[in-house]
Write a structure and sequence with these properties.
This protein has 350 residues and is an all-beta fold. Helices cover 2% and strands 43% of the residues. The protein has a 9-stranded antiparallel sheet, with no helix packed on it.
């Protein structure tokens, strides 16, 4: 694996081997740390966040689910439904109806890897790829930039897509994600981050944690979770999170958010007094609880993960946007640049 500027890491941040992929590529684990003692660990397999540790009363609380070994990350994709712990999802996050979309008069058939629909980029999405480390900075606001070249017709998506994802840990306890992408041909793109958060630490449930979402409607879906094209008002609905409510036991829905510089969602733990605020320039945040842990999944530190061990805040475009003309644009044209910024900010509320 080509690693440039790795000497930047020698002082403030460390890296170590995390294991070998099935085709013998070495995967590295990196740590970003700030002056407050917050630490974020990442691996270049899937440009994945493996832990986010925040000081609470002199102890570090790890607020995301994950695994201790590369073998477990790789093996999780063989589960009946992969959990995608902490990973970067692409080329298209969410579902595309029957895995079919048309672009410039040509039809593309993707793998139907979810009840006949395409989900999270296909059978070999971005989470299963070894990314290159293209830059790293240390000192204040340390960062690491991962890059990936997705070849033309990778998973049958058109165009060779070059993607960069820069993770920055700020001195304000923000994990900032900045995505960029360019393509050799017009293509569709929708990237997201798939951490499962738990502000009590990853060994408990999220059911006692309180959530807000600044949204007055969410996407109506068919039974197989494909958008119908219509919207459902949150008024009078269980999914009205405009005022704080406990996390639901089961949710897999895309909430519509208006572009702004303000918070789009929050999560709060009365136990640890930790609060996470989510900021994004994307039109939707997809909230997910309640699947893919099977009560048999061993996570970090040998913890048994359950269906309610974590909650995802997937900032992204709408699922199936390539097939719904009135949804936000999901086409990246040759010569244009895809950009997306999402921030997860953590603070102690005392």
């Amino acid at each position: 694996m080509e690693i440039k500027h790795i000497s930047h890491f020698q002082d403030a941040s460390s890296y170590k081997s995390f294991g070998l992929t099935l085709d013998n590529q070495e995967i590295l684990s990196f740590e970003l740390s700030n002056k407050n003692g917050m630490k974020v660990q990442l691996i270049n397999y899937g440009a994945t966040v493996t832990s986010i540790k925040i000081p609470v009363d002199g102890k570090l609380v790890d607020v995301v689910l994950g695994f201790d070994t590369l073998e477990s990350y790789i093996g999780s994709y063989n589960l009946p439904s992969a959990p995608y712990f902490g990973t970067t999802v692409g080329r298209y996050a969410g579902r595309i109806n029957k895995g079919i979309f048309s672009l410039n008069g040509k039809e593309f058939q993707l793998a139907g890897n979810n009840n006949g629909n395409a989900l999270h980029g296909g059978n070999e999405g971005f989470g299963k790829k070894a990314w290159t480390v293209s830059d790293a900075t240390s000192g204040e606001n340390p960062s690491i930039t991962f890059s990936l070249l997705s070849e033309d017709l990778d998973q049958n998506y058109p165009g060779a897509l070059q993607v960069y994802l820069k993770y920055t840990l700020t001195e304000a306890n923000e994990l900032k994600l900045e995505y960029k992408g360019t393509t050799t041909e017009d293509t569709v793109i929708n990237l997201t981050h798939h951490s499962y958060f738990n502000l009590n630490g990853h060994e408990s449930t999220v059911l006692d944690q309180e959530m807000t979402i600044v949204s007055d409607k969410f996407l109506e879906t068919h039974s197989d979770n494909i958008p119908t094209g219509k919207f459902t008002s949150v008024s009078g609905h269980d999914f009205d999170f405009r005022t704080s409510k406990n996390c639901p036991r089961s949710i897999d829905n895309s909430f519509v958010i208006e572009p702004s510089k303000d918070v789009v969602a929050t999560l709060y733990s009365p136990k640890t007094k930790l609060k996470m605020s989510v900021y994004t320039d994307q039109p939707s945040v997809h909230i997910y609880v309640g699947g893919n842990c099977f009560d048999t999944l061993k996570g970090k530190e040998n913890v048994n993960y359950s269906a309610v061990s974590g909650i995802c805040f997937e900032t992204q475009n709408f699922p199936d946007a390539p097939n719904q003309k009135h949804f936000p644009n999901s086409i990246l044209k040759k010569g244009d640049e895809y950009q997306q910024t999402t921030v997860y900010k953590f603070e102690n509320i005392n």
